[in-house]
Amino acid sequence: MKKFKAVIFDMDGVLVDTENYYSKRRTQFFDQINVSIAHLKPSDFIGGNMKDLWPRILQDQYEPTRAQSYIKQYNDFKAKTPLPYEKLLFEDAHFILEFLKKQQVKLALASSSNRADIERCLSVNHLATYFDAVLSGADFKKSKPDPAIYEAAMATLGVLPHETLVIEDSENGIISAKAAGATVFAISDARFGMNQSKADYRFTSLREIVQILKHPKN
């Protein structure tokens, strides 16, 4: 395995085990507004921005004004049901970040979550000081699988695609990172049916990735 100058992390499903919590909260919301999402797969909601999914959610009932109303309701619902990030941190998160910092590898976070949620997650889990750059998909016109967020992260860190490793879990995130030219490691998914076939390698944990990175080949 070659030595990388930078590693860019996705957040949900990579550093924090949020996907199951998101799924339950989302189901509760759609039940509340009496809108069915049974025609969509759980993986359809992972790794992108839900604002892009509303035409598929509402199907022939889709209208921009209706979608905007639901988006506002959903944002209000999320604000009242915040994620307990401090309980969801993967046990190996500090381990891999500490290892990479000691190796003087540049680190960035590139998440589709909004910036307030990202900052809260980093704060309660004491992760903020590890990262040289933090990017939110909410700041981009196009969400993953568009490569913009990863291209911007590499530009901010001052590295080239072949010098960069991205750690992802979702199909959208993997496609985004590959389109940006990075090497992609995926944290294996056994719960949500995500297609991870486009990743360069798949691993069961962050600790397993550290073992590979300890023995780089230039």
TrEMBL record:
> Does the UniProt entry include the keyword ATP-binding?
no
Q: Which GO terms describe its biological process?
A: DNA repair
Species of origin reads Lactococcus hircilactis
Q: What is the lineage of its organism?
A: Bacteria, Bacillati, Bacillota, Bacilli, Lactobacillales
Return the CDD domains for the record.
HAD_BPGM-like
Write out the entry's keywords from A to Z. Hydrolase
Q: What is this protein called?
A: HAD-IA family hydrolase
Q: Which molecular function terms from Gene Ontology are attached?
A: phosphoglycolate phosphatase activity
One Pfam family of this chain:
HAD_2
Q: Does the keyword Hydrolase apply?
A: yes
